[in-house]
Amino acid sequence: MPYHEFDCSKVIPERKQHAVVKGEGEDLTSCLPKGYLNTIPGSISERGCAYCGAKHVIGTPMKDVIHISHGPVGCTYDTWQTKRYISDNNNFQLKYTFATDVKEKHIVFGAESLLKQNIHEAFDAFPEIKRMTIYQTCATALIGDDINAIADEVMAERPDVDIFVCNSPGFAGPSQSGGHHKINIAWLNQKVGTVEPEITSDYVINYVGEYNIQGDQEVMQDYFKRMGIQVLSTFTGNGSYDDLRAMHRAHLNVLECARSAEYICDELRARYGIPRLDIDGFGFKALGDSLRKIGLFFGIEDRAEAIIAAETARWKPELDWYAARLKGKRVCLWPGGSKLWHWANAIQEEMGVKVVSVYTKFGHQGDMEKGIARAGVGTLAIDDPNELEGQEALLRLKPDVIFTGKRPGEVAKKMRVPYLNAHAYHNGPYKGFEGWVRFARDIYNAVYSPMHQLSGVDISKDDYATDKGFVTRRMLSDASLPEADRASPLTGYTGKFDPIEALRAKTDADYPQFARKSSPQAAE
């Protein structure tokens, strides 16, 4: 078993089974790290919780909904505006977040009345919004607040509103993936089948596991429209609450992110007989194959081929330009969700880069299986790494760039490794033929950025003293200085005296507590 033990985690021997190096001739039965298990105490995991997976990943992209968290305000704040789930209703769901702001007294005496009050206040504040999702958090789940009963009471009092309840407290699973499952099944049980849609095409799909990061959904929807396909609902990027209630009338579920949304697809197949078709919107070949599969299902392959031919002719030359300049660059692929396997092979085959590491913080072993299968020999695969393990991996692998989230990305920047935001993108969308070229451009800009290269220059031994600028205008323009030596109020410096010596004199004379021991004043 090719386990990899991090030096920083030797005190936690269980962590050894959560990282492997893919060896020559290894099959997936011997090179899979353990995954989707409870966090090992002491490992300082950076995972999101089940509540985060439900609200932040899947619920919040619904555009015409008041998203309210029943719990402490910190839970809501942590899941607000951290991804670019844009929408065509002026981004209502990004601008506003709602919380009942539970305090200690509510934990003691209950918070159901507080919840009801907040629901009415939210609807009153935004009378044009008639739909709401309530998310359970750890605190209110532990005290047993009956959110469903409160929602029913409000809907009886306000017949024009509709409320969805998501009971997915943070402890509902080992990671945020547990929350994905909870909200998938809850939505199907509570809301699917409660609205009948208008069917306008012979080819009707639900686009599932798509969250419209910087417009991804709009790119794919354009392809579907050009093929004559009606997108009944998008689960859940730029998705309308009522459209998602009509998912049961689609002819096909087109699934993008299997990790977050395969649950609802499988249940729609079991309950309504709707087939599931997994696709991939990233990469020329993968996207082309996906459009062909959809075309084959509906018998409109010629429409798919026409789109593929036109888009490839337009964008392939630009992709080739970037690929020639990215060939051999080393990449750590540390994203979230399905990008682990969507990108692993495509960026190597179509951009020429070499993937040296893959990781997931919340994925299952099936996710890692697909990711490792598409990576090369020597790839370091890590489940749920902490910050120290990530730093150790960067020092060992010496990548040219990493694709990850903002939190580990900022750490990488401090280690002089450029990163691209794999969760919310730098300059998306990245899906589609043009989007894939845009992704290559962002990689190129990260690798060859002059500013980033300057950040690695060590100036600590430069001849020019870099502390000359740290003299305040107040000290330089102080009335105690000779008039000729006072700083100009516009420039802050006259050039007629040494600013460092002026600072030292002022500090030693007037602030003895800061005086240097070697100064005459200190010696006296």
From TrEMBL:
Pfam families: Oxidored_nitro. It catalyses: N2 + 8 reduced [2Fe-2S]-[ferredoxin] + 16 ATP + 16 H2O = H2 + 8 oxidized [2Fe-2S]-[ferredoxin] + 2 NH4(+) + 16 ADP + 16 phosphate + 6 H(+). Gene3D superfamilies: Nitrogenase molybdenum iron protein domain. Keywords: ATP-binding, Iron, Iron-sulfur, Metal-binding, Nitrogen fixation, Nucleotide-binding, Oxidoreductase. It comes from the Bacteria. Residues 49-447 form the Nitrogenase/oxidoreductase component domain. One of its GO terms (molecular function) is iron-sulfur cluster binding. Its EC number is 1.18.6.1. Its cofactor is [8Fe-7S] cluster. Belongs to the NifD/NifK/NifE/NifN family. Hexamer of two alpha, two beta, and two delta chains. PANTHER family: NITROGENASE MOLYBDENUM-IRON PROTEIN ALPHA CHAIN (PTHR43457). This is Nitrogenase protein alpha chain. It comes from Rhodoblastus acidophilus (Rhodopseudomonas acidophila). The lineage of its organism: Bacteria, Pseudomonadati, Pseudomonadota, Alphaproteobacteria, Hyphomicrobiales.
